[in-house]
Design goal:
This protein has 503 residues and is an all-alpha fold. Helix content is 74%, strand content 1%. This is Tripartite tricarboxylate transporter permease.
């Protein structure tokens, strides 16, 4: 009964006039910041910490939670419209969102993103309310060996992210692995690929690479191909209405990836970025028409958008129940908790039930406010595409440079942005997909770190990977993910050969 009364108390807090006001304010600020490339949820929450100092901790944290998932919600806008990810977690949104905008369906793409985000966030909030204490124990049971196997399973997605050529996909992935090793090795303190430059000691920031490979590469392409008339299709926003066929098409991905995204989100260190990639790849693998992905598929847009928002909500499980941040953003949010005098952990639900359940209850309201605000504004937001090409190029360049400079206030990062823009343009010209590069960069560091940590803890005993049923199961899934697609390709080639011989 105590748990039920705590839930009721949480809803009373969230749906009081102060709760509604701070939730609405939080999602508005978050959405506005999310649209700006490079700023993202971490910057948004960091800015809010001094502003909320001295406020009622419950309402302050309700507002910051709104800023978090509001910025995730809003960051898909620039990904779809100008191929410029607003945050790391929306890189996968560009794969099919931007092609839809190029096809003259920007309104439809933004509507799908808004609905998918709403469904993912709402379903995850329900799971968060029902299973938070139980799932916290599951999340903390994952050790380095389990994380290594999980990251390896994610790496098998590289072949699925290619446009037909596995060789090009693996070239892209190797480049991503090379990029992620730049900097000081965390375990040995050795400088790797820094070439004596102190600016590279901390490595290359993810957003520098993401904005370079996607936004800057696209800008370079537009500048060089000034006479390409296909860009004019972008100014055709199209209708924001979704037909019954569209809703039926995206309902499956939204249902599946609400669950998958939430489960990945509860794992400390996994986060929304990994969830979005895994959802995109898994949806492409089970699709009857995988060749449509990367060319403007509604499923390819709905899957990562749903998963991203579900994972963002799921990351509150280890934060609230264990006091362990589930992502970089929740690590900053943990600092906000401590500044406000709140200690998240197993005792929070007993000592501060109104705060614990109030944050969770506010997520329902926040997602409703987001969908109400964003759907009517889509035609106005999409008018960004009507800006003349020279002005739009200038705007993208300015936003990218502002976003990158805001990360570390380093002019060296601006040079890196330009470098990766050139690399992205060359890759695009050679038809080398950028997605495997990003996936390898995201998972490579976690893969190496957990592999070495598992062997260190076991003192070099390789049975740490083969004596645990969870690890063995994940490794088998990784092996099947590589073998089965190639086996199917081999069967198809054999059938074609037999048909040709019979004719």
């Amino acid at each position: 009964m105590g748990g039920f009364s705590g839930i009721i108390e949480g809803f009373q807090v969230a749906y009081s006039w102060e709760g509604i006001l701070f939730v609405a304010l939080g999602v508005l600020i978050g959405t506005a910041i999310g649209i700006m490339p490079g700023l993202g949820p971490i910057t948004a929450i960091a800015v809010m910490i001094p502003i909320t100092y001295g406020m009622n901790p419950t309402f302050a944290l309700v507002m910051m939670a709104g800023v978090y998932y509001g910025s995730i919600f809003g960051s898909s806008t620039s990904s779809i419209l100008i191929n410029t990810p607003g945050a790391a977690s929306t890189v996968a949104t560009t794969f099919d969102g931007y092609p839809m905008a190029q096809r003259g369906e920007a309104g439809k793409a933004l509507a799908i993103a808004a609905i998918a985000s709403f469904v993912g966030g709402t379903v995850a909030a329900i799971f968060l309310m029902l299973f938070a204490p139980v799932l916290a124990g599951l999340a903390v049971s994952f050790g380095p060996a389990e994380y290594f196997a999980l990251m390896l399973l994610g790496m098998t997605a590289i072949a699925s992210l290619s446009d037909g050529s596995s060789i090009r996909a693996f070239i892209s992935a190797v480049l991503g692995f090379m990029a992620v090793t730049i900097g000081i090795d965390a375990q040995t303190g050795t400088n790797r690929f820094t070439f004596g430059n102190v600016n590279l000691l901390e490595g290359v920031d993810f957003l520098v690479i993401a904005l370079g490979l996607f936004a800057m590469a696209e800008v370079t392409y537009l500048i060089i191909n000034r006479r390409d008339r296909s860009f004019e299709k972008l100014s055709n926003i199209g209708s924001i209405r979704l037909s019954k066929k569209d809703l039926k098409e995206i309902s499956g991905p939204m249902g599946r990836h609400s669950i998958l995204g939430f489960l990945i989100g509860i794992l400390p260190g996994a986060g929304a970025t990994i969830a979005s990639f895994m959802s995109y790849v898994s949806e492409k693998r089970i699709s009857k028409n995988p060749e449509e992905f990367g060319k403007g598929s509604a499923k390819g847009l709905a899957a990562p958008e749903t998963s991203t928002n579900a994972a963002s909500t799921g990351s509150f499980v280890p934060l609230l129940s264990l006091g362990i941040p589930g992502s970089g953003t929740t690590a900053v949010l943990l600092g906000a908790f401590l500044v406000l005098g709140v200690q998240p952990g197993p005792l929070l639900v007993q000592e501060e039930p109104a705060l614990f359940w109030g944050i969770i209850a506010s997520m329902y309201l926040g997602n409703i406010i987001l969908i109400i605000l964003n759907l009517p504004l889509i035609p106005y937001i999409a008018k960004l595409l009507k800006i003349p090409r020279p002005l739009l190029i200038s705007l993208v360049l300015t936003l990218c440079m502002m976003g990158v400079y805001a990360i570390s206030f380093s002019t060296f990062d601006l040079y890196l942005l330009l470098l990766f823009g050139i690399v992205g343009f060359v890759m695009k010209s050679l038809k080398i997909p950028a997605a495997p590069f990003i996936l390898a960069f995201v998972l490579g560091d976690l893969l190496e770190e957990n592999f070495r940590m598992a062997l260190t803890i076991s003192r070099g005993d390789w049975m740490v990977f083969f004596g645990n049923p969870v690890v063995v199961g994940l490794l088998l899934l990784a092996a099947l993910s590589v073998i089965l697609p190639n086996l199917n390709k081999f069967k198809k080639k054999t059938k074609r050969k037999d048909l040709d011989e019979s004719m």
